[in-house]
Amino acid sequence: MIAGPSAVWTTIGVAFDLTGAIALASVAIWLATRRDRFGRAGTAVVIALFLTALWSLASAAATASPAVVFAPSLVESARNLAWLLVIYRLFASDGRHATLAPIRPVIFALAFVEILHLAVDYGLSRLAIDSDVLRVAFDFNVMFRLLVTVGGLVLVHNLYAGAPRESRAALRWPAVGLAALWAFDLNLYTIAYLAGSWPYEIAALRGIATGALAACIAIAAAGNRDDLRLRPSRAVTFQTFSLLVIGVYLVGMVAVAQWLSYAGGNFARLIELAFLTLASALALVVLPSRRVRGWLKVTLAKHFFQHRYDYREEWLRFTRTIGSGGEESLPLGERVVQSIADVFESPAGLLLTPGDQGELTLAARWNWAEIEVPSVAIPLRGLGHFERTGYICDLDEVRGSAAGDSSGSEWENDVPRWLIDHPRAWAMIPLVHYERLVGMVVLARPQLARKFDWEDFDLLRVIGQQVASYLAENSSQVALAESARFDDFHRRIAFVMHDIKNLASQFSLLARNAELHAEKPAFRADMLVTLRNSSDKLNALLARLSRYGSGGVDKLEPVPAGEVLAVVMERFRGTPQVVLAETRVAVITANRHSLEQVLMHLVQNAIDASRPDSPVFVSLSIDGLNARFEVLDSGSGMSADFVRNRLFKPFVSTKTGGFGIGAFEARELVRAMRGRLDVESREGLGSRFVVRLPLAAASDIYQTLASHDQKVA
Question: Is a pLDDT exceeding 80 seen at residue 101?
Fold first, then answer.
């Protein structure tokens, strides 16, 4: 009378039942310590989950071994009774079990029908009955199940529909799970009653309903159930929808081809092949089209997502484009245009930036070589509206306003004619930074042009502000670099003026002494020496102009230290307060002119810092592998903070009219000669400047040590 299931459906039924049992048992174990999330119904829910898992196991056993008949029916009755108890406890959680009088009688009636069915089913399993009576018993058993199933669905509907609005969030998922379980049973038992036999193929899928029940209970018990929503990414949605479209297309093409073959006729096969060829060619042309892809994206964004844009992806793409660097990357202006054009899949664009008089001029073009841009792209008078409002201009609207013989707004009249007349010009996006217009991006029309909406405006304003900050920062960097170049130029001029001032002082002193001693042969000889030395210094100054700021020297060579010191003392022969305290014979590795310049500066500074009657001591000694030049005065001295933070800073001076570069230049020249300049000073007591330069005999040692350090590094 009743045919058994095939081997395939037996395997499917056992697999689904075991999967559902595992899911239900797992949720029950997980929920055992979280029963309070269902209030008074927590314990009943855990018991009902365990009984439903046991029923799934019994169903799997009965499917695999048809001799097991009564056990699944017994456990199913226990399952239904447990879920009826859960429903009653859920009603009791908000007090409706007392206010709704029919609830308790309905539950009791359904429980009675379930128990009656269990007793009848048990009695029939113990008796030997012929096939006709067995068919009637089967129909009665199915009717009992239908009564309980329909009653359960009615209770679930009243549980959720009659709940207060604030309680529905907690009841939504349990109601969905029970509705899925009993709705599947309703269809199963209805088919069984109408067919007069058990539909094994449909019954094999009952594990799907139990799995859905387990998932709904888990979501209801989860603390973040409001966040458990399916949120596929736009890329996944677009790809899935594209595959769906392709699948529907292929199915439709095959269906039409089959219909043509069934239609018959002499030319049926020819028509079928012609259709398949044309349809395939159409697919190859239409599906890869950018316009079709754009239409799909717009349609999906409109109907599948709350927002048009995936802001995370848009921002990541924007930062990748605008922040890309390297030799192969586009210039900043073109990257600015591309970063905004990518939002609308625009194929080209322009960047306009302010010129000398504030008007916008062409700064960069991206993939738009054919458009002619005038020297003054947008005059200054047409920028006020964009700067004040940051308005994003849709050029199609401006063209429509002009075509409708409308005078338009005042700002629309200022939109340049070359943009309106060009058919590809589509949109103008102002770049505003701190209420100042730093640029304008003009986009070309994309494949799928559409009207701007509020989401486009919001995204473009944010991106426009960010791009404007990049442009403003780049302008600041360019201005800073230019300022640094001017600063370097002024620094070089200051060094030159400093040296020229020293030479001018020597010439002035020479001219005054010539008026008094020009007739003396000795003075004339000294004057020639002084002029020759001054000429050499001027030539050395010209040679050093390209090196100022780096402290470089012409070349290093063995120099008698005593001779250099003697030249310096000769220069200050007319100043009695300069005293040579000590001198030694030593040959050092240095540059003669640079060393003279350093010592001259140190001695002159010591004289300027001392009283006229206070001596300045100059000495030369040997200190290990170095020659030690020392200039000591008892003048006003300097504070430790000044020595540490200001003495060697260029353009910082304590002397009126001083340039503040002498100490800085002296230290850099000493370093260039592989030496060291040390300073000791105390306010009110005086200062000591010590210049250490390597002896010529020790130069090879220093060179070897330096080479060894480089190899180790």
Answer: no
